[in-house]
Amino acid sequence: MNSSSPSTAHLPEGLLAEAPCHADRAFVTLVSNPDYLPGAEALLRSLRLTGTGADLVVMHRGLQPEHLDRLRQLGARLIAADLLPTSEAFDLAHARDALHSRAAFTRGGKPDFHTPLDNFVKLRLWQLDYDRCAFIDADAIVLRPVDKLFDMPEFCAAPNVYDGLDGFHRMNSGVFTARPDPATFRAMMGHLDRPGVFWRRTDQTFLQDFFPDWHGLSINHNLLQYVWMQMPGLWSWDDIRILHFQYEKPWQDHDKADRLRPLIDLWRTIAAGGPMPDLSALPGPSA
pLDDT for 234-245, tens place per residue? Predict the structure, then answer.
């Protein structure tokens, strides 16, 4: 374990933990506004169902005490996280309206509560008091044990595959491995905010650029929900470890809900505190 003792929670400026770490490895997610709470709660429940002994960490911004209590009751270690100390020009370029007008999302619908600038807070994983971390987006659920992620190299991520084979050339930052280190974080900050820089898909584009030789996880470690509709031949309930609800969220009403109903029903079972269903008995996608 890193230098933090069991009775202290010393973290760098920009992070404030309410409790010390209990393990040297952690699954980490980010909740940047209350609209992501349902997702984070379902993710925490799903991780508990796997029997992991790793810490479950929620980095958070903009939450009220009652929101934090909901996460605390699920065993989360809560760490308040500030936005990164980026320049005004960087912040303006990556604000929601500016980014969406310059690089609109055309393949799916981002919810109104999506705030692109908050995505860069993920980089604070490299400031945490753990030896190894695995990040999982708060709109994902874990269906099978994934502790083996901690033994994989830095930096690992799955490809961004959901509507075509070209996605195998890009990574998706909804799941990735990290080994916290102050030197790595300093190097990231030096690379992140430079004159004229624009990260089209925020943290995702940045991380692929910073780790150009990223190690590829299988798509089953970050299976994107659109695969169900657009690439059904890649879907196998027997192999999926992490299911990621990119774009529209399963706790929202949206125009694709009927097409994604089995996935949403699975998410709602876990979110309600139910046991993990027999995945092999679930229906497959329509060809």
Answer: 999 999 999 999
212-236 exposure pattern, b = at least 16 Cβ within 10 A, e = fewer: eebeebebbbbbbbbbbbebeebbe
Q: What is the pLDDT of residues 78-111, one digit of tens each?
A: 999 999 999 999 998 888 666 665 655 455 555 5
Which residue in 47, 127, 141 sits closest to 81, CA to CA? 127
Any idea what DSSP says for residue 55?
E
- H/E element, 232: none
DSSP 44: H
Q: Which of 284, 263, 286 is nearest to 140 (CA)?
A: 263
Tens digit of each residue's pLDDT (9 = 90 or more) over 141-191: 999 999 999 999 999 999 999 988 889 999 999 999 999 999 999 999 999
- Compute the half-sphere exposure of residue 12: CA atoms within 13 Å on the CB side of its CA: 16
By three-state DSSP, how is residue 178 classified?
strand
Domain boundaries, the chain: 15-276
> Distance between CA 87 and CA 202 in Å, rounded?
15
CA-to-CA dists, residue 48 to 43, 51, 132, angstroms: 9, 5, 19
Question: Strand 242-244 vs strand 215-216: parallel, antiparallel, or unpaired?
Answer: unpaired
Decide if 115 contacts 96 (C-beta within 8 A): yes
pLDDT for the residue numbered 4: 42
69 by Cβ neighbours in 10 Å (0-12 / 13-18 / 19+) ranks as: exposed
Domain 15-276 architecture: Alpha-Beta Complex (3.90)
